[in-house]
Specification:
mainly alpha; elongated
Length: about 375
């Protein structure tokens, strides 16, 4: 038995030695790999140390966000007011509401006067009529810009902006709705213009036509176009709906405030027919601005309304175009009817009296 065990013991001993050798080889291999890794790490460290240190990035300087604080609303005494209190409080309210209008009326006149006195027109022996023909449009535009600039500076001094105080926010407009307001303004003005054109000629319509033609007298036509189409609608909406109406609404009922602002807006348009439709336009603009809480839609409507006069000017300035587009009263009547239908349709959709989805279902037979 002893002889048989010896070979087995040898084999077991050999296996044990082989396992020991394998384990030793693995340990040696792992130690070599660890040494290689440490050498590589040391080499990388030396390379990094040789390079110049990277400067840390400077933190971005964030501009402080300016919080717009609207002007505090002036509170009135509680309880019934005495006659003296009413005079002082309502007088102050109307002065605050009207002072931008005084500025708007004053600045263009002041610029016209200064332009005539110091613009070399007297030395060139220009008459007043010639001066108005050559420079009135330019100086009126300058005066309107100055009015807007003064209103901007006043709002900035109060810690606000002219856009905040007048609730004029173009970025908050919906493009589709803005197109609708422009179309409504253009269509309604077309209807009014066609009606006035078709009326029998008497002193009121003659005065209206003369006043309309005077808009585009002068060589500075580009300034007049810019004023009629863009500058005047923006400034007038800021003054009448943005400032005047908002100020009156602080202590006056809504209907009364709308009526007062519309009457004042109408009276500035001179001719009786202009006064009439400017009053109606003022009512629409005021109610739109209050409903939207944004006078930007009123500006777009105002631009659309004024755009008809520009189109009429360029058509009537050319005899061929005038004969083509306005050659017959029947054609003018068609323009007026189309403008009336479009404006009434858009008004019904906007006020909710006409549901387009329901109308489409009925037309489609669903």
């Amino acid at each position: 038995m002893a002889g048989k065990k010896k070979p087995e013991e040898r084999r077991n001993k050999e296996k044990t030695e082989e396992k020991t050798k394998e384990q030793t080889a693995k340990e040696e291999g792992s130690s070599e790999s660890l040494e290689r890794l440490s050498r590589a790490a040391d080499a990388v460290t030396r390379m990094v140390q040789r390079e110049k240190p990277v400067k840390p990035l400077k933190p971005l300087k964030k501009k402080p966000v300016k919080v717009v604080k609207p002007a505090p609303k002036k509170e009135w005494p509680a309880g019934p007011l005495t006659t003296q209190q009413k005079i002082w409080l309502y007088g102050g309210l109307f002065l605050r509401a009207l002072w931008p209008l005084f500025l708007y009326a004053l600045m263009p006149s002041l610029c016209l006067t200064l332009g005539y006195l110091f613009g070399g027109y007297q030395e060139a022996k220009y008459t007043i009529e010639e001066f108005f023909s050559y420079g009135a449009n330019f100086y009126t535009t300058v005066g309107t810009f100055l009015t807007l600039w003064i209103l901007h500076k006043g709002a900035k001094r109060r810690g606000s902006t002219i856009w905040e105080e007048s609730t004029l926010f173009f970025r908050e407009m919906r493009p589709g709705r803005a197109i609708g307001f422009f179309t409504f303004g253009f269509a309604s003005a077309t209807a009014v213009s066609a009606l006035v054109t078709l009326l029998p000629r008497f002193f009121l319509t003659t005065a209206y036509t003369q006043a309309a033609n005077k808009l585009y007298l002068g060589v500075d036509l580009i300034f007049m176009l810019g004023t009629v189409l863009f500058l005047a609608p923006v400034v007038e909406e800021i003054i009448f709906r943005g400032h005047m109406l908002n100020t009156l609404l602080e202590h006056i009922p809504e209907k009364t405030a709308v009526l007062i602002s519309s009457i004042i807006f109408a009276l500035l348009h001179g001719s009786f027919i202009w006064i009439l439709y400017a009053f109606l336009l003022g009512q629409i603009l005021a109610k739109t601005s209050m409903k939207e809480d944004n006078i930007a839609y009123g500006v777009i409507l105002h631009i659309g309304f004024n755009a008809t006069s520009v189109v009429n000017y360029f058509i009537t300035d050319d005899p061929v175009k005038k004969e083509l587009f306005f050659g017959s009263k029947a054609l003018i009547a068609v323009y007026g009817i189309l403008g009336l239908v479009i404006s009434l349709f858009l008004a019904a959709v906007y006020t909710g009296r006409l549901d387009l989805k329901l109308l489409w279902r009925r037309v489609a037979g669903k």
